[in-house]
Fold these 2 entries.
Entry 1:
Amino acid sequence: MKQSSFLLPTLRDVPADADIASHQLMLRAGMIKQLAAGVYSYLPLAKRVIHKVENIVHEEMSKAGSQQLTMPTLHPAELWQETGRWDKMGGELMRLKDRHNRSFALGPTHEEVITSIIRDFIQSYKQLPLNVYQIQTKFRDERRPRFGLLRGREFIMKDAYSFHSNEESLHEAYEKMYEAYSKTFTRVGLTFRPVIADSGAMGGKDTHEFMALAEVGEDTIAYSDSSDYAANIEMAAVQVKAPNDLPTHREELNKVETKDVKTIEDVSELLNVPASSIIKSLLTNVDGDWVLVLIRGDHELNEIKLKHQLNAKEIRLATNEEVLEVVKTPVGSIGPIGTSLKVVADHAIQYIVNGVCGANEEHKHYTGVHAERDIDVENYGDIRFIKEGEPSPDGKGKIRFAQGIEVGQVFKLGTFYSENMGATVLDENGKSKPIMMGCYGIGVSRTVAAIIEQHHDEKGITWPYEVAPFHIHLLALNMKNQEQADLGEHLYSLLSEKGYEVLFDDRKERAGVKFNDADLVGIPIRIAIGKKASEGIVELKIRHSGESVEVSVSDLVDYLA
Ligand code: ATP
Ligand code: MG
Ligand code: MG
Ligand code: MG
């Protein structure tokens, strides 16, 4: 590829609205262009990387016995109503109507669609197991699309689904997929950890998330410093239940009706603090007393999900809109929490309060609660705060925390979808049974961003060879010099013939511009043709390590091999 005619719009300056490395670098290296919030075009350089990641995914899926298919993006509402997810998905489901006023969704995932296919075609246990996958654009109207490709509203996912007549078969497929994921993420150059995850409300059991380790990751992982134990903190730490037996003997505690507590103003009235200070406290005074607690959107009042015990300053609430949105949601219950928790918005909900907690009765709360005084926060009912340095659950090693980016997830779904949608098979005895299912996702576009998060330096990206957009960046430093230009052309054809993917910088730009762009774009091997072209000598530099050597043109091919 000749750079003079390649769409590679590099930017010198760091874009103002991008605050993490992968987002900044993808913009600066001319990889992506935003069209709307969380919606991006993948420019040619990004497309090449995506293609490589997809190829690895295809290979590993195929080796694991999964067959590729493609399902529609446009899903009729009726299908999603069969599982109740039309309502349950809430705002995240992108909805639209056709000209006949029929409702549709843009697929955020495909359990419903695949189950509708399988139920029509698979009748006997003899036709199982089956494993199918696709790589496709998904749509999710994320509450906060951000960080470029890490959390988009339109993104590329590989989603696989497996079908079984018994638990053992499901387990086998699960293990196989787990293996395939480990190979995939290793091949794309990620440092990652599979972690035990929370199976949530979907009736599933085993599930692991694959976490690419990165400071900017939105998930917290609790792992053992000397074994393989690792869990998403939301799993490792807690399932909090609102207390049944909060010490109501304390006179300071008042049970109050919170039915009409719906807005930040209501909260302010209930707590007798100015509305403005509620937001302010959340945003700035987080080291103090304010805690956000979330309960699932479907009003499972006892399932407060906490993510972490830590300094309140790490609470992730950044925008007024988000706080307002959270506070505006109808109140169910809030949990008894100490003053320093990190809780992450997941499904919609709750509000925030100092000294208020759920009374385990709908629309009732206690006020005047002092967490430390009134509640054994160390171990209250189902609350358990995991602590850095405590023994890991497997008894091997101590707990450490790290941040991770969820790049994939494997999930034993069980029979939630098949039961709700009537996907059954006849077993050996001619009895009808719901099919057991597993589902397995990889965020392809997110993976590309995660790779950059782990592979960059102050100058730009440092691609791992296997997913690099090109193998060699060939620079002719002065295209006006005929000798250099000719040598450039010669090496470009020679190296391409040898099977390397070469980006030839044949632009009429200054050497400094070319070097900077090369560092930014991060192709693993750089070959610069400069003044020594006349002696048949070029400079070869490894982007990752910065090592450089002078090589004579006649030795170049051997040297590269
Ligand atoms: P998250 O917890 O980050 O919201 P998820 O658990 O909702 O992700 P899954 O339903 O497990 O996501 O989807 C499978 C994979 O798709 C995820 O592991 C992730 O890599 C990717 N993915 C999910 N949401 C997004 C998004 N908004 N943008 C990019 N990739 C995403
Ligand atoms: Mg999500
Ligand atoms: Mg997740
Ligand atoms: Mg997930």
Note: The two ends are 21 Å apart (CA to CA).
Entry 2:
Amino acid sequence: MSWTARVLTLFPEMFPGPLGHSLAGRALKRGDWALEPIDLRYFATDRHRSVDDAPFGGGAGMVMRADVIDAALEAKSLPDAPQIVLTPRGRPLTQRRVAELAAGPGVVLVCGRYEGIDQRVIEARGLEEISIGDYVLSGGEPAAMVLLDACVRLLPGVMGAAESVLEESFSQGLLEYPHYTRPALWKGRAVPEVLISGNHAEIAAWRRREAERITRERRPDLWAAYRALAEAAPTA
Ligand code: ADE
């Protein structure tokens, strides 16, 4: 069976959305991965099909019910696949976790809406909470799409040889160096000389220096981690 994403959501019609296009969309059509949006409302038990309710303790918004999410997970788990809730409270998503998820059988994603999900189902099911960044979306669906896009491009056969994952500077803990294409002179701006020199060693060294400079300037956190790694294993 191909890598499978089951997405539990109140808005199944949002999928595949952007995942139906470009690299992920072509891979989906080829069957390199499978996407199964699951309507959480189907697992509602009362006659109003309610999936959420007011928070105990008061306050604004609605909380998604534990029993509904539990029933959906009971019916729709995938053998050995992690079960993940997308929430701004989660651990930040990293390329490392993305690579681990892509190497497994797939994922079951729960998209939260409203104020969140009843804590008891998160604990009872041992759900992993993941955030895609320090900002708040109106729901987990776009976050689920981000996570899936990042995983799918790592699946075997999805990326062409031109786009080598291992050579990406990010996989080495650095931000990407700048890119240039034709025309060589545009609005008075020339492409850096070294890139048209034909000297591949010098080009590689220039790119490495630029990736390091940009990482140092923009992301002191990544830079510190990169330096720590370089000191532990100087040949890497
Ligand atoms: N749901 C709402 N905001 C989110 C975020 N930043 N990451 C993951 N899921 C979310």
Note: Residues 29 and 233 are 42 Å apart (CA to CA).
